[in-house]
Q: What sequence folds into this?
């Protein structure tokens, strides 16, 4: 049986359930994610859409899409980030802090070419994203 966890937005109005394990956990350095997060990087985990269920507060979810391949969903009450639907890759990104205790060991950095903070952690640093997610697969040094 798959492991199931629930997490919520900042105020608790929106609650989601995730089932199983994420496909990947990492850090995004693209300008859109870092501006959205107000931070030098955005931790994320990618899940299949079938693995995620909004179990409370779906009517509280608002959506913003600056780019057609990124549908950022957040709580309309507190503004807390919930998820980012990525239809072009068929995956959804759950913001890592939304998830309850999960061994969230990042395995890569994406859009490292746009970084504002260098991180020497030994993980692969992709110029954009790995080939399996539609990117070049080119890696950069720390």
A:
């Amino acid at each position: 049986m798959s492991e199931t966890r629930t997490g919520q937005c900042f105020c608790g109005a929106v609650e989601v359930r995730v089932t199983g394990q994420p496909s990947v956990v990492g850090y995004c350095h693209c300008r859109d994610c870092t501006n959205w997060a107000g931070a030098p990087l955005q931790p994320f985990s990618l899940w299949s859409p079938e693995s995620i269920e909004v179990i409370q507060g779906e009517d509280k979810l608002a959506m913003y899409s600056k780019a057609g391949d990124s549908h950022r969903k957040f709580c309309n009450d507190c503004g807390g980030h919930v998820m980012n639907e990525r239809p072009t890759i068929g995956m959804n990104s759950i913001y890592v802090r939304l998830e309850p205790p999960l061994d969230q060991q990042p395995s890569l950095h994406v859009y490292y070419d746009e970084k504002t903070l260098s991180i020497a952690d030994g993980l692969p640093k992709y110029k954009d994203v790995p080939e399996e997610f539609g990117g070049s697969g080119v890696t950069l040094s720390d």
